Amino acid sequence: MQQLEKPIQKPYSLEDWRKGYESQKQELEYWIEDIEGEIPQELSGTLYRNGPGFLDVYGTPLQHPFDGDGMITAFTFNEGKCFFRNRFVKTKEFLEEQKAGKMLYRGVFGSQKPGGWLANLFDLKIKNIANTNVLHWGGKLLALWEAAHPYHLNPENLETVGLDNLDGILEAGEVFSAHPRIDPASSFNNGKPSLVNFGVKTGLSSTITIYELDEKGKLLQKYSHIIDGFSFIHDFVITPNYCIFFQNPTTYNPFPFLFGLRGAGECVKFLDNQPTKIILIPRNAPHKDVITLETEAGFIFHHANAFEVNEQEIVVDSICYAKLSQIDPDTSYKEVDFDKLAPGQLWRFQLNLQDGKVTKKLIDPRCVEFPSIHPNKVGRDYRYLFIGSAHHPTSNAPLQALLKLDLQTNEQQFYSFAPKGFAGEPVFVPKANPQSEDDGWVFNLIYDSSRHKSDLVIFDGQDISSPVATLHLKQHIPYGLHGSWKSKS
Is 234 among the annotated ligand-binding positions? Predict the structure, then answer.
């Protein structure tokens, strides 16, 4: 008699996970006093985080969490203490809806105004939700969203200054992605750090515009390249000589959006019979010798890093899904069945520029997302990677753990917050005088469903077997997206 396999016991409950998607409508500020362990004395600076704070607009639930208005959280460290503050990004559209007391804008990923298709018919106004990343660069704190200009914030109190064109660098209609890369030693800035970012304008063809800024926010280079077809490009990677984009195989039918029947994100379709295109745009002027390679279909939101092995070989490490999970307009995102979705897994792509071949291998079978590395290793060969992970070693599931990978020895360290804790993006911050690549601190903002509150957990990057400190907040922070560290100057 054949023995049936026992189903895998889930280390989470959907009910617990869903609670992390409740809106947080309070703006608070206070010294964090409920602390387990001790905050490292040498930490001096601010950890900024961004993500959707509202998951409903005046009682109208959002169809997708990525449509939520951006809320910045700031953890400021000094002499073993930490001050917390959170503020919404007061965009023009946010303030209009606050004044009206109702939803006025459709969401990009699927949220529709109340009133059915007639209320949304031919309404192409898009809200700048400024909810994806936050970065201090060129003397400005910027809240980033990939489909518009950034919003300038006061770094001291997080109050919104206003929409920012980066002192004229961004022209009307141009966009500035939420995934900049900082080159730690740019040859285009005399070996000093530079910020490299992009924007995509897409349709029947797509224009990728790349911006390179010096440490003062001044323009070093700006150049564009046109590619065929619709582009869903959320992230990119750099090396000293290239900006590298993976053009996911997707198409877009605008008519359901135009006629008020669907959100824009619900009109994107994954083409599993088409290849993924890998586009390498030279950073060296005149930026003309663009290289396009192809690999089998897959979908990538985030990359970990890229580096040049030699003049003809480049390595790219990315979180790859077998396919893009279509947004279902008839089902709430809170009702997701993780077992039916393709997990994100860490893959290594080896690009041979001489023969045009792409080979790839699976680095680890775990379901993972939100990679973080030492900032001085961006675009360079690197050894250590910190990443959000599912608890189970192979099953698709919410992120509930921190995983550290040694890419040289294949050794792993793992710390889980299951069954009640849910994780996001780790942020690695090097120590003042690091003795090794992993000699630093790792921050992880964790939603604790047992308390319906969030914790900021600090690990020693060399040993993540147990936290150095756990800072208990007075409220929950909805699941966020990206963040960054700014050292005290």
Answer: yes
Q: Is there a domain that residue 160 lies in?
A: yes
Among 472, 477, 420, which Cα is nearest to 15's? 420
What integer pLDDT is reported at residue 449 of this predicted model?
A: 98
What does the block give as tokens for 263? 């959100």
Q: Give the separation between CA 425 and CA 453, rounded to whole angstroms.
A: 17
Q: Which DSSP state fits 465? A: S
What does the block give as tokens for 197?
């970012």
C-alpha 93/C-alpha 125 separation (Å) is: 10
- In 29-179, alpha helices (H): 92-100, 116-120
Residues of the chain with pLDDT under 50: 1-4
pLDDT of residue 323: 85
Cβ partners under 8 Å of residue 264, min gap 6: 108, 109, 110, 126, 254, 257
Side by side, which strands form the sheet with 160-163? 133-137, 140-144, 151-153, 160-163
Tokens describing residue 424: 């996001």
Is residue 465 in a domain? yes
Residue 126 is predicted with a pLDDT of 86
- Locate 226 and state its tokens: 């046109």
CA distances from 391 to 347, 365, 404, 414 (A): 19, 12, 13, 9
CATH number of the domain where residue 274 is located: 2.120.10.30
pLDDT at 344: 96
Q: Number of folded domains in the chain?
A: 1
The SS3 assignment for 58 reads coil
Q: Does a structural domain hold residue 11?
A: no
Distance of CA 70 to the CA centre of its chain: 13
Q: Is 19 helix (H, G, I), strand (E, B) or coil?
A: helix
Identify whether 18 is part of a domain: no
Separation in Å, CA 192 to CA 186, 243, 421: 6, 18, 40
Tell me: is residue 179 an annotated ligand-binding position: yes
pLDDT at 1: 41
Q: H helices within 194-261, ranges in order?
A: 255-258
Instruction: Please give the pLDDT value at position 332.
Output: 81
Contact (CB, 8 A) for 143 and 50: yes
Q: Annotation-wise, does 303 bind a ligand?
A: no
The verdict on whether residue 482 carries a ligand-binding annotation is yes
Domain containing 122 equals 26-331+338-487
Q: For residues 298 and 342, give the distance between their C-alpha atoms in angstroms, rounded to a whole number.
A: 10
Here the tokens at position 316 are 């790219």
Query: Could you give phi then psi for residue 116, rounded to 5 degrees?
Result: 75, -165
Burial (Cβ within 10 Å: 0-12, 13-18, ≥19) of residue 279: buried
For residue 295, which of 345, 351, 215 has the smallest C-alpha distance?
351
